[in-house]
Amino acid sequence: MRGYIRKRGENRYQVEISGGRDPQTGKRVRKYIQVQGSYKDAQKVLTDTLHQVNSGMPLVAPQKGRVTVDEYFRGWLDGWAPTHVRPTTFESYKMIIEKHVLPVLGRLRLDKLQPEHLEKLYADKLKQGGLRRAGSGLSPRTVQYMHARIKQVLDRAVGRGLISRNVAELVDPPLQEEKEMKTLTATEVQTFLAAMRTDHYYALWRLALGTGMRRGELLGLRWSDVDFERKSLTIRQQIVPVEGRPTIQEPKTAKSKRTIPLSDDMIGALREHRLKQTEERLLAEQYGNLDLVFAGRTGQPISPRGMERRLHHRLRKLGLRLIRFHDLRHTFATVALEAGVPLKVVSETLGHEKISTTGDRYQHVQMNVQEKYIAMVSDLMKPRSREQGERS
After folding, report:
1. CA nearest to 205, candidates 274, 157, 269
2. Which of the listed residues 1, 20, 216, 380 has the most CB atoms within 10 Å of its CB?
3. Domain 69-170 belongs to what architecture?
4. Which runs of E-coded beta strand occur in 91-151?
C-alpha cells in the first residue's frame, strides 16, 4: 500500500492511495482524494486514509453482489488481522480460514451467504474435517473458534455496507465439550523427576512441575531473568511457534509478567544446568548469544513442539500416562491445591488474570480439599462424653 501527494494549484493537493490489483478486473486499484488546504492537511488525509485501509476499509468500495467470500475474507486477512493481533493469533486465524472456510464457502457471493451454509459447514467439519488424520473430525472447540472468526469478519462486512446482516448470528455453534484435565499424581511426579535426573533438560522439567510455568515461558527464560541470590525468576518473554519457527514474544498477558520464588533444589538444578551449558558453549564453534536458559546445543531457541515430543517420548519410556506439556502446569496447580496452598498464591504463580479463573478451572480439586478440611474440623467438634473430656 503506497500513498502520494501531488500539488494541483494554490492550496490544492491530490492524495493518491495505490493498492494491488482488482481480483475481478485485473486493473490496479487507486483511490484519489482532493484536499483544499496546506501540504500538512494533505499529509494528515494521507496518514488517516492509509490507517483506515490497513484497518480493513476497502480501498475502493466494491459493488454489492460482486464480492465473493474468498475475496473479502482474504482481504480481511491481508489488511486488518496482521495489524491487530499477535503473530501466533494471526497464524491461527489464517489457518482456520484458508484450510477450512474458503475451500467450502469461498466461491459464494458474500451477499448470498446463508445460515444454512454455515450449519452444513460446521456439521461436515465435526464429522470429517480433521487435517492430521483422514476421516477424523474437528473438535467442537475448533468449530466454535471457526464460527467466531466467521462472525468477526462478517461484522466488518456489515459495517462496510457490503451485506445487510451477519448470518453467523443466526447460527448456533456446537456446544463445547469439557476437555478432560490429565495430571500426574504426586507419586508419579516423583517417579518422573527421579528418572529425568540425568536428562539434559532436567532443570526444565523441575521448573515446569514446581512452578507451573507455561512451555513458552520456560523456553523463553533468560539467565538475566534468574536471581540466584533472591532465589527467584522473572518472566519477561516467551517462545512460541510462528509458521513453524520458534519466535520470541512478550508474555501472554500483563499478569503473565510475574516473579516466581524458587526452592533450593530448583536453584541447585539451575546451577548444574548452567555449568553444563557453559561446557557446551566452550566446545561449540558458534554459540547463540540469546542468553537462553534452555537452548539447543548451539544456543538456538528450542522448538516448542519438539519439547512436547520429548515429553511424550520420556513418558512412554517410563510407562506413565501420556499427557500434554500444558498438563504439567495443571499437575503443579492440582498438587499445590491438594497440599493446602492458598488459591490466591496458586493463581498468582500461574499468572492468571483473575483468581476466579483459577477457581473455576480447578473447582473439582478445591471441592476435594474442602471436604478434607471440613471433615478435619468436624472431627475436632464432635460431641464428647464428660469422661472423654476429662481424659483428654
Report:
1. 269
2. 216
3. Orthogonal Bundle (1.10)
4. none
- Domain map (residue ranges) of the chain: 2-54, 69-170, 186-337
Quick: pLDDT tens for 256-304: 999 999 999 999 999 999 999 999 999 888 888 899 999 998 899 999 9
pLDDT tens across 27-80, in order? 667 777 888 889 988 888 888 887 777 665 666 555 555 789 999 999 999 888
Q: Report strand pairing: 232-234 vs 226-227.
A: antiparallel
CB under 8 A, 24+ apart: contacts of 203-207: 203/266, 203/269, 203/270, 203/272, 203/273, 203/293, 203/294, 204/294, 204/307, 205/328, 206/265, 206/266, 206/269, 207/262, 207/266, 207/269, 207/270
Q: Cα–Cα distance between 83 and 233 in angstroms, integer?
A: 32
Helical (H) or strand (E) element with 248: strand 245-249
Residue position matching grid coordinates 517417579: 191
> Which fold would CATH assign to domain 186-337?
hpI Integrase; Chain A (1.10.443)
